[in-house]
Amino acid sequence: MKTNRLDLIIVIALLVVTAAVYAQVRDFDYVNYDDPFYVRDNLIVQRGLTGYGVKWAFTMTTLGNWHPLTWLSYMLDCQIFGAGPGVHHLVNVVFHVLNAILLFLVLRRMTQARWPSAFAAALFALHPLHVESVAWISERKDVLSAFFWMLTMGAYVLYAERKGPARYLLVVFLFAAGLMAKSMLMTLPLILLLMDLWPLGRFEKTRPPAPAQAVPGPRGASGGKKRRGEQTGRKPAAQAGTRGDLRRFLPLFAEKVPLLALSIAAGVTAIITQQKSGAVVSLTQMSLADRVGNALVSYVLYLWKAIWPSGLAVFYPQQPWSPAAVLASALLLAALSAAVFRWGRAFPYLAFGWLWYLVTLVPVIGLVKLGDAAMADRYTYIPLIGPFVAVSWGARDLAERLRLPPAVPAAAACGVLAACMIVTHGQIGHWYDSHALYTRALAVTEKNYLAHTNLGAALIADGKVDEGLGHIEKAIEIAPRFAHAHYNRGVALERMERRSEAVEAYKKALALNPDYADAAYANGNLALERGDADGAVSYFERAIRTPEPQPRAFAGLAEAYLLKGRVDEALSSSLAALEWQPADAKLHYNIGSIYIYKGRVDEAIGHFREAVRL
Fold first, then answer.
1. Reduced to 3 states, what is the DSSP secondary structure of residue 223?
2. How far apart are CA 435 and CA 468, in angstroms?
3. Which helix (H) or strand (E) holds 297?
4. Comparing C-alpha atoms, which of 316, 270, 325 is closest to residue 292?
5. How crowded is residue 229: how many other Cβ atoms within 10 Å of its Cβ?
6. If you ran DSSP here, which 8-state letter would residue 225 be given?
7. What is the pLDDT of residues 168-215, one digit of tens each?
8. Which residues pair with residue 373 across a beta bridge?
9. Is the pTM value of this prediction over 0.70?
10. What DSSP string runs through 497-508?
C-alpha cells in the first residue's frame, strides 16, 4: 500500500509541476510556421470531425506527411473547443504530461526502480529541448505519436510478463496507431528488442541449459594427455556462445517481424509522400559525405544541448562542417560507444540508453535529407529518453558506490530539475507568437533566412510592411533561391500597391518551386483584378493541381470561369470550393446565382437562404 501511495505521489507531482511550467501556453498565438497549414487556415480541420474530413485525413499528405490521427486530433479539438490557438496548445501539454507519467509507470514496471524511473520521467517532462514539441501547435504529431509509443511499450511489458495473442495484438494495434500519428515510431520494434536485453532480461529467460561437463577421470603418468577419441563434453567456447546467443535471439526477433513490416511500410510511405511534396533533398543538392558529416556532428550537438541547453532556436540553417569538426565528432562518438560497451555488461543501462539514442535518431538524423534545417530540437523528443535513463540509473549506482546519504542525491536531482524548470519556462516564452519566436532565432543563430522571412511575413500581416519587407530582402540576400521569401516579397509589394512588381515576385517563387500553390493563387487573384480571365484560369488551375493544393483557388477559378461565360465549369468549381469553405456566404450566393441562371430555382433558394443565415 505504501508503495502504491508513493507512486501516486510521483504521478501527481509530474502532472502538477509539468502543467505549471507549461500553463503559460494557454495565452499563446499561432505561429506562421506550419500552423496556418495545420489549423489556422485549414478550412477542413476547422469544420471539426466530418465524413469528408475523416476521408481527407486518411488520404491527404499535406506538407509531405501521412499522419491521419494527427489530423483527426486537430479536428476533434475544433469540434469541441473551436479553432482558437489556446486550446490546441493546452491539448499538446496534456499529451506531454501523459507521456511523462506513462514513461514513469513503464520504467517502474520494467525495473522496479522507483526513483531512477521518476528522475528519468521528470527530465523528459521538464527538459528545455522538448519545448518545441510541446509549445508548437504543429508538432502535435510529436506528442501524440509519443503517447502511442509509451502505450506500446507498456503493452509490450505486459506481453513479456505473460505471452498471449490478445496482448500481442494490442502491441501491434498501438504501434500502428502511433505510426499513423508520426512515422518516426518506425524504430520502436528495435527498442522493444533492446528492452528484451535490459531491463526485461528476456535473453536470459530463453537461454538453453548449459551443456554437461565431463567428469574428471584419473590422470595418467603421461601428464594427462587425452587418448584418441576421448570427449570432454564441451564445444569450443566461441562456437557455443555464438550458437547459444543466436538461439536466444531468433525467437525474440521473430516476435518483432510483424512490427518491422509495419515500420518498413511507414518508412516507404514517408519517403514517397516527402518526395511528392518536394521536401526530399537530392544527392546533387547535398552529397552523401556532407550528410554523413552533418549527422555525426548533429549526434554530438544534440548531446551537448541536452547537457547545456542554450541558444535554442526554431530553425538551424544548414552549414558546411569542417573536416576537423566531423572527425572530432566521429572520434567522440566512437569513444563513447567503446566506453559504453566496455562497461555494458556490468552496467546494462548504459548500453540501453546509448543504443536507444543512436537508433531512434536515425530517421531524422539527415541521411535521408528533408528540408533545409541542419537539425531540430523536436527531433530529440523520443531519443533523449535513452540518455535520461542511463544518467538516472548511473547516478543511483554512483551514489551507492560512494555511500552517499540519501539526502545528497535527492538534493542534486532536485537542483537539476529546478534548473530545467527555469530554463524551460524561459524557452516556452519564446513561442508566444511569431514575433517572439523569430526575434529569438535571429538573436542566437547566424544567416537565418527562414527566421528573417517568417518575421517579415508576421510584420507585414500586422501592417508594418516596410519593416517586414526589409527582413524579406535580407532573407533573399542570404538565400536567393528560397521561394518562400520571394512569395512574401510579393505579398509586401502587393500591400504597397506595387502590383506589377508583386506579379514578378510571385513568378520568381513559382520558377524556384513550380508547385508553390500560394504563389499561383496570388497571381490568379491579380489576374482577376486586371480582368485577365485566361491568366486567372491558368494560375488557379495550377494552384489546384499541386501536391498541396490551395483550397481557395477553387472559388477563384469559379469567378474566372464566370468571366469567360463558362457557367458549367464555374458551377463545378464552386461546388468543389464549397467542400473546403462550407461557411462562406459569398460562395453560397454565387452558387445560388448560377442555379438561377440555369433555371434550378429550388436549389438556388437553398443556397440563398444559407448565405443569409451565414
1. coil
2. 11
3. helix 288-307
4. 325
5. 5
6. P
7. 999 999 999 999 999 999 999 999 999 999 999 998 765 554 444 444
8. 317
9. yes
10. T-HHHHHHHHHH
CA angle 158–164–168, rounded 5-degree value: 65
**Grid coordinates 508538432 are at which residue?**
139
Burial 326-345 (b: 16+ CB within 10 A, else e): beebbeebeebeeebeeebe
CA distance 166 to 147: 21
Q: What is the C-alpha separation between 486 and 457, in angstroms, rounded? A: 11
DSSP 532: -
199: preceding bond cis by omega (within 30 degrees): yes
**584-600, pLDDT tens digit by residue?**
788 888 888 888 888 88
- Cα distance between residue 500 and residue 498, in whole Å: 6
Which residues face 363 on adjacent strands? none
Nearest alpha-carbon partner for 419 in 306, 302, 304: 306
Least Cα distance to 150 among 92, 94, 98 occurs for: 98
- One-letter amino acid of 298: S
Nine-digit cell at 209?
541449459
Rounded Cα distance between 558 and 564, Å, is 10
CA dist., res. 389 & res. 408, Å (int): 19
Task: Give the contacts of 485 (CB within 8 A, at least 6 positions apart).
Answer: 449, 452, 453, 456, 472, 475, 476, 479
How many residues belong to the chain? 614
The DSSP letter of residue 39 is I
Nearest to 370 by CA among 456, 439, 277, 437: 277
In the predicted structure, residue 128 carries a pLDDT above the cut 50: yes
8 A C-beta contact, residue 523 and residue 554 = no
Among 209, 193, 446, which Cα is nearest to 311's?
446
pLDDT band at 241 (very low <50, low <70, confident <90, very high): low
DSSP assignment of 148-212 equals HHHHHHHHHHHHHHS--HHHHHHHHHHHHHHHTT-GGGGGHHHHHHHHHHTTS-HHHHTPPPPPP
Would you state the cell numbers that stand for residue 487, as one nine-digit string? 512569395
Residue whose C-alpha is closest to residue 63's, from 286, 277, 384: 277
Residue 415: exposure state from Cβ atoms within 10 A (0-12, 13-18, ≥19): exposed
**Cβ of 549: how many Cβ atoms within 10 Å?**
19
Cβ atoms of 300 and 329 within 8 Å: the answer is yes
Rounded-to-integer distance, Cα 54 and Cα 49, Å: 7
What pLDDT sits at residue 244?
61
Contact status, residue 141 vs residue 70, Cβ threshold 8 Å: yes
CA atoms within 13 A on the CB side of 356: 25
Rounded distance between C-alpha atoms, residue 338 and residue 228, angstroms? 44
Angle at 417 between CA 412 and CA 423, to 5 degrees: 130
Q: Rounded to whole angstroms, how far apart are CA atoms 547 and 156?
A: 38
User: Is-contact 120 103, C-beta < 8 A?
Assistant: yes
